[in-house]
Amino acid sequence: MINLAEVVGTVEAYLDRYGTERARLAPLLTALDQGTAITARSTFTGHVTCSAMVLDADWRALHIHHNVLNRWLCPGGHLEPGDTTLLGAALREVEEETGIEADALAILDPLPVDIGVHRFPANTARCEPEHWHFDLRYAFTVAEPPRLRLQADEVGGSAWLPIEPGALAEKLEPLRHTAAGTAPVAVPSRE
């Protein structure tokens, strides 16, 4: 299982790069300061999730239609007991939800390109109250869009969508030049 120290180190490194986001990350930083068990899905004050922005050669991001939320999102989800790294959790989620294996991806940066802090609605079917999701978003490229095997119980479709203008697009732009000019960092094993 991923320990709190890895989350703290990752968030600190992220804030070294994007220090102006400290206020936006306040709920996450409070949970870290309190030593809350945010790597466990059962922590309903809030917990960590990991997602992946899988970008194709045209700089479009793979989105899946999330059945429960009825929204288009990048592949991602909760940490599992067998996850040993945050990056590995993002890779596992991509493979589970889309069938894309880690060796088909190249990571653009070993740090998250973004950290989302948002309220997740209550799920009465799972007896889960409304809670915070602290979503660490990693960026990957794929040489050409691979054949997908969608996880039908969670995913209702897929689409390669343009990146919307805004803060995330601005963070991705330097990585786009890296992807075009040099070979991205090879994706490490999930273990």
- Largest beta-sheet characterization: 6 strands, mixed
Helix tally? 4
Radius of gyration: 16 Å
Proportion in β-strands: 25-35%
- SSE class: alpha+beta
| Structural shape | globular
Number of strands: 9
Helical content band:
25-40%
Distance between the termini: 11 Å
Order of helices and strands: HHEEEEHEEEEHE
Low-confidence stretches: 182-186
Average of per-residue pLDDT values: 90
What do you see in this structure?
The structure is a single chain. The chain has 191 residues and is an alpha+beta fold. Helix content is 26%, strand content 28%. The strands form two sheets. Strands 1, 4, 5, 6, 7 and 9 form a six-stranded mixed sheet that branches. The longest helix is centred in the C-terminal third of the chain and has 15 residues, at 167-181. It is globular, with a radius of gyration of 16 Å. The protein starts with a helix and ends in a 5-residue tail after the last strand.
Protein traits:
three-stranded antiparallel beta sheet, six-stranded mixed beta sheet, 9 strands, 191 residues, alpha+beta
